[in-house]
Amino acid sequence: MATRMKLKLKTVFVLYFMVSLMGLVYALMQLGQRCDCTEHDMPKDRTISRLRGELHRLQEQMRKSEATKQPQKQPLKPTPLPIIYVITPTYARLVQKAELTRLSQTFLHVPQLHWIVVEDSPHKTPLVTDLLVKSGLTYTHLHMPTAKDRKMQEGDPSWLKPRGVEQRNEGLRWLREDRRAQPGGDNQQGVVYFADDDNTYSLQIFEEMRNTMRVSVWPVGLVGGMKYERPVVEGGKVVRFHTGWRPSRPFPLDMAGFAVSLKLVLTNAEACFDGEAPMGFLESSFLQGLVTMDELEPKADNCSKVLVWHTRTEKPKMKREEALQAQGLGSDPAVEV
């Protein structure tokens, strides 16, 4: 449209120049002459008249074109991806840095992810602080120690007491306060996921959960003494759960097997994990105030694909290290592992 307008303007100026030039020539030819030049001037007059008519026609076309020109449509802005807020409890142990390094490098491949790392500690530790600074991720670093009566002791089985309760609740507290402090934060699209630092995650699981409306669910592999646990889906709805232990629980899900809408978390300010819940009921203590089974959103091809695994890193055996330390020959403690 802009190019066509430039050509029309150029034509108008050329015609105008030609008309003016011919008028000037005609006037000069008449100076000092009294002869009857009518016969000679008639073709020139007709040319001038024709050019003036063409000029008028082009001007009229330009006027109409300006009147009917449609405003240019602005390109549609892409809808921003909902942010995935991942809450990860972590505690000091020999494999902590290895676990967090592996997890952080998975998260680097996930767009629009905010990692909330909560240490089971009375203060932030240099190891986790340094790892997060170098991670390249958007993150929030928090700390909250586990209550003494819920602290696991050396040799306790992993199922004896619920773990990560205070840390997950601290992550929820920070998230609610932070979002409400932001303009429009209460209405922000997003999803909340609880990712332990020792699990293994397919990148696909994050895209599956991203558009959660209330609570989305999927299978988890290598959990509960089974190859997998999963919601059973019929007609697009969760009707029961495939699990080996207490299937009568309100929500017999692993912590890695569900995600919650950010709006649902914000509008239910009291929703949290109950550290006094019976064994295996920790997830249910959080979910039963947020959703019913009929409202669950099955993901991962109607819960038929395993995209997250409840893996555990083997505890390193340190017998030789301990023997060397007894001789004063142990590894340099300044080397961070």
Can you walk me through this structure?
The chain is α/β, with parallel strands linked by helices and 337 residues long. It has two domains: 9-67; 83-151 and 159-309, Spore Coat Polysaccharide Biosynthesis Protein SpsA, Chain A (Alpha-Beta Complex). Helices cover 38% and strands 17% of the residues. The protein has helices at 2-30, 38-68, 96-107, 126-134, 165-181, 203-209, 262-267, 282-287, 300-303, 319-326, and strands spanning 83-90, 113-119, 138-143, 190-194, 200-201, 215-217, 220-223, 226-234, 237-242, 258-261, 297-298, 308-309. It has a seven-stranded mixed sheet with strand order 3-2-1-4-10-6-11, sandwiched between helices. Strand 2, helix 4 and strand 3 (138-143) form a beta-alpha-beta unit. The longest helix is centred in the N-terminal third of the chain and has 31 residues, at 38-68. It starts with a helix and ends in an 11-residue tail after the last helix.
Features:
337 residues; alpha/beta; Spore Coat Polysaccharide Biosynthesis Protein SpsA, Chain A; 2 domains; seven-stranded mixed β-sheet; three-stranded antiparallel β-sheet; 12 strands; 38% helix; elongated; transmembrane; Glyco_trans_43; Nucleotide-diphossugar_trans; signal-anchor; manganese
